[in-house]
Amino acid sequence: MSEDHMQLHQAAATRRLSRRVVLRGMAVASAALGGSLLAACQPAAAPAPTAAPAKPAATQAPAAAATQAPAAAAGNAVTSVKVGAAVGLTGRYASGGEQIKNGYELAVKDINSSGGAMVKALGRKLPLEINILDDASDANQTAQRMETLNNSGILAYFGGFGSDLHAAAAAVAEKNKTPYVGVAFALYSIHQQGYRYLFSPFPKSPLLTKAIFDLMDTLNPKPARVAIFAEKTDWGAEMQNGWKQQAQSHSGFEVVVEEQYAPGSTDFSSMLLKAKSANPDAVLMVPTPPDGIAIVKQMKELDVNPKLFNIIRASDSGAWSTALGKDGDFTVGAPGWGADLKFAGNADMVKAYQAAYNKPPEGVVGAAYAVVQVFADALARADALDRDSLRAALASTNMTSSVIGPVTFNPDGTGNVVTIYEQWQSGKQVTVWPPDQVGGQIQYPAKPFAQR
Fold it and tell me: Residue 34: pLDDT above 70?
């Protein structure tokens, strides 16, 4: 072979070797990229319950992959079930938000202490992880926190406290096609939007307005003259209309005062003086906690003394009694639960709460605890560990036992649950309705403020 031919042969061999090296390099790079993508598809570790919300990528839309993430991974790779909640831990609903948070966390702790929640789709139990973000009792922040939670790959949302915040949250949950289970809101109109992912085991305005008139029907003498103080909000108007309808459908009642006020007001004297002039037997209202406390203080100052105080929402938490003392007694509210209820497991939950928080549970705690019970029940029946399968399982809920009693859902997501009224008596909440759950007799008529 000539020297020229030998050089050509060596050059060709060199080119073939270089090509093989390049191909091997491409294969290694491809494998590395594939590993990165696979790792990216695995469920992310859940953030700590009270950690600050992670900032979502500006251009990242809620992805279908997040909806199916738990089911997409191999069964043994799924180590927990993640849920999230936007709750007002600061701001006007902070006292109620704390109860919601504590109820959720206690229920998760109790379920995890027994090995976790049963997941039918995997045939085994998994621990629950809950991430609770503070929305500062602001609807705009509620929506933002909901998106942050969605981007973290949760399976479902739990709700916060207050009808206006739930209205904002439910819309985001529907957009993201993620099940949303919430209590501590009675706004019925939220359920009339055609939402498929909203579920609420909590009495709504029609049930609340009917139950208070059913209760008043049993009192002697009947509190026939009724004053309505309506908050200028969607829920305030809804309750105002409901009370008026119930006053007409129940015999012997007359609405003698019907006033509206803006939430956040500080001077309620005009409204209260009109009520004093009309001398009502009962006053009905749904103020925020700060507004409700201010109204009662001004009622005392102006010597307005109805026989029955029905103050929903504001009186739900212990902040009511702390702020008002004896002036907060005799108030009837509807927190959705009571420590003295006779439902299975309720007494054990009360003891567990006392041990965990060194104080007795307040009105909304049990309702929040029940949300986790409802969620766990659905997990045990869902055919797959994804959002749509969970939604289907929630829709077919038929629980015969929870700390709030039996639970089923209507097609609009409203719950068929027991409507409970509690009364503040000597600084404690006592169940006074329904008759088969009472923890003590209602104190009626209420003592005038000057005699308490």
Answer: no
